[in-house]
Amino acid sequence: MREKELRRSMAVFTIGTVMKLTDLTARQIRYYEEQDLIHPERNEGNRRMFSLNDVDALLEIKDYIAEGINMAGIKRIYEFKKVEKPLTNNKQKNNPALTDDDVRRILHSEFLSISGYNPGNKSNLIDPNRFF
DNA sequence: TTTCTGACA
DNA sequence: TGTCAGTA
């Protein structure tokens, strides 16, 4: 099914289209790119061109934001994904890699482990207040 | 018209 | 994040 993956990674949307698709503002989309959460391609005119994958990523990011996770937290999640995915793929070529559900589960525990109060630590990734 | 970057609130 | 400026 690599034909499908190929299409999903074809950059065909302008930021205007992505805005409608994701309900995000151009400002937010550009900011997420700055944070290395998405990597849209650029066309001849330096315009961002997004793929279906980018849109998916954006929708995912939107969910995390809605859940109260800040940029630092989301960045961690994405770093985590980048490292864990290839790792499990190498481990066993036949067995399916982590399912999205597995990732969710792992991310959840990861999330909980960094959600506690850390009074003296100003680098808190999650705002504790969101739990009240 | 649409999008881009940079900057300020 | 919103918004404004000056471009391409």
Automatic annotation (TrEMBL):
One of its GO terms (molecular function) is DNA binding. Pfam families: MerR_1. Keywords: DNA-binding, Repressor, Transcription, Transcription regulation. Residues 12-80 form the HTH merR-type domain. This is Oligopeptide transport system substrate-binding protein. It comes from Carnobacterium iners. The lineage of its organism: Bacteria, Bacillati, Bacillota, Bacilli, Lactobacillales.
